[in-house]
Amino acid sequence: MLSVIYGLKSKRAQFKIQQMAFMMVFVVIFFVLVGMFVLQMNLGGMKASAREKERDQVMSALSSWSELSEFSCSDNSIYCIDEDKLNVLISSEYSRFYENFWPVDSITVYKINEDWSSDKKPILCPGQNCNMYRVYDSGKGTSEYGTYVSICKTSVISGVAYDDCELGLLSIGAKNIKD
Amino acid sequence: MIKNKKGMEFSFVWLFAILAGTAILFLAIYGAISVGKGMSNSQNTLVAKELTVISDSLQAGGAAATGSVIHFPREIEIYQECSSDSFGYNEISTKVLNKKGKDFEFFGELIKTANKYIYSSDVASREFYTVSYPIGFAFEIADVLILDSQTYCYIGLDEEDYFQKGIISDLTIVQKKALFGASNCTEDSVRVCFGVGGKCDITVRPLCSDSSNCDSEYEVGYVEKEGSSVAYVGNLLYPAIFSPKEIYECNTKRLLYRQFVLSNIYLEKINRIGSRGCNSALSSSLGLLGGESFRLSMDLDNRDLINLYLQTKSLGEDDLHAECHLWS
Question: What's the pTM?
Answer without folding.
Answer: 0.84
